[in-house]
Structure prediction request, 695 residues.
Amino acid sequence: MAADPTAAARPESAPVPARVLEAEGLVKRYGEREALRGVSLSAGRGELVTVIGPNGAGKTTLLTILAGIVAPDAGRVSPGPSEVGWVPQQPALYGKLTVAENLRLFARLERCPEPEAEVERMLALTGLGDRAGDQVVKLSGGNRQRVNIAIGLLGRQSVLLLDEPSASLDPRQRERLWAFVLGLAESGTAVVLSTHNIQEAERHADRVLVLADGELLFTGSPSRLKDVVGHQDHEGLEEAFVAFLHARGH
Amino acid sequence: MRWLLLKDLRLLRRSPLLVALLVLYPIVIAVLIGFALSRGPDKPEVAFANLVPPSASQLNLGGERLDTSRQADVLFRAIEPVVVKSRAEAIRKVEDGDVLGAIVIPEDTTQKLQSGLDPATIEVFYNAEDPIKSRYVRDTIKSQVADANNALTKRLSKVALGFLELIATGGQYDFLGRQFDVLGLQRSERILKEARSELPAGSPARAQVDQVMRFARLARTNLDLSDDVLASVGTPIRVRQVRLDGAATPLSSFSVAIAVAVSIMFITLLLAAGALALEREENAFLRLVRGLVSRTGLLLEKAALAAVCSVAVCLLMLAGLGLFVDLQWDRFHLWAAGVTAGSLAFAAMGLAIGALTKEVRSASLLCVMLSLPLAFLALVPSGSVSPALFDAIGVISAVFPFKPTLDALNGALNDSGSLLGPLLHLAALFCAFGVASRLALQRFA
Prediction:
């Protein structure tokens, strides 16, 4: 939790980190509807990639395929689910279990060699050591999300996928969440997250992926997206994003 | 899977109210159903007005005095009489709902019985507000009046037989304090025989005496047969009961089987469906099945959880019931087999319900809505509905675990029929519902 929540995104000139997540040509159909149309992406070690797009763009579908929950109709993902941490949009926790019991259960299910040590590590990482004995149902939304993310990190995966992690959090909880996520990225975890909050993407993401109607329209830094639509750097990414979508007929 | 099972048990331990309800509710329902099925209604309270004056209650039949008021004892075997003094009071008691019906014995009853010209008529009043009660009262009174008629007929037949015996063989007859000597057919024939022997041979009177003697003999022979005829008048039809199918299970033991089957149904269905639905309600399902545990493994864990809890509760329940009902403890292993098989089949059905729903509340509601009608359908006795409908009920009952569980428990507890058939039936249902729940989980989760 030592990361500065106001830290700027990685500069364009920074060296490209080693790729720890790669997906190629992902296609997913639900009946006649194509939810994903040949989407390819990658994420490097310590990189923070944000997937943005309008409702129904295919963001959650993309993340669930990357997490190995849903099988794609075409395309491939590397690595497999066991090496990828996944944090669903809604906290996937047992409300009547304590924070420590939730962590211990999933550590055992993840077959961590030393579950108790892993629980202690996660309690320290989330800063919830003093709430370890509290039932999850008694935690605030922000703290629940931190436990939710910590469970996604059990097993020391090199990639963490988060589906709209800041949705339903108040501004203060969001700041704490971002401090936590940025800390993870700084420690070398590749973080791929989806969000509707374009300002957050602009502020924290090394790279943004713009999805619309299942199609990957853009991948690059937030400033690059502004360049594409001819916006100045001082203008917000949200305007650039809307203009970009409009220009692409969405 | 072990860790998930421990997690679920911990969750149950932290929900004492839920566990208490889960255990107590089915037990209360089961006991109520058991009572309802095994305990017949008490004697209905019926107002009884005997308007025959005490001085006229004696019936004189051929010199034998019969007290008609004693015949009411037959009626009182099946009803609880509330003695009233008048017809109006009897009717008022029925109208006020104090009694379920009323019987009025009019004052001319003995007189009519004595004369034999008109049958004596008793009056019955009942309240038809509750059709079940009114039918019960009507049937009870009708049946008891038939018994009283039968008893009276026997007494009348006995008197009639005495008269016939007197006519056939002769003897002394007492009427209004005076003794009469009745000659009788037998003695008449003897006298005629003696008289004939004194007639000269070739006398035309001999042929006439022979004719009378033949008649006397024929009449006496036929009167001898009348004994049997009159003996059958009181009970022209007798009942011989033969059991063709099924074992004679004491009603109390059958109630135990029903009580345990109902408990298994509720506990297992609700636990299995609720535990599976909880994984989705807590959003943990997708996290679990992305490599931590297989979908089939998750289903097996929930089935084991529900079955283990259900078996434990139901065996304890049986042990408790054993204090009040005579159970065969040497068949304990068979009880355990029946309870386990039923629990597993219900667990698989519960999983199918849990796989269809995303919330514990929906799963619980669906369980209750499905299970109660199925249980009642399985208890519909043959003959109470049309044959086609009964066949349809049989098919529906066979598709769900309640009926085979009840059969298995009845077989295990009461040695009524083979246990193997119901156990195989339950095994088949476990597999079928298991496959259905796995498919539902694939399709809806």
User: Anything to note?
Assistant: Chain A is about 35% helix and 25% strand.
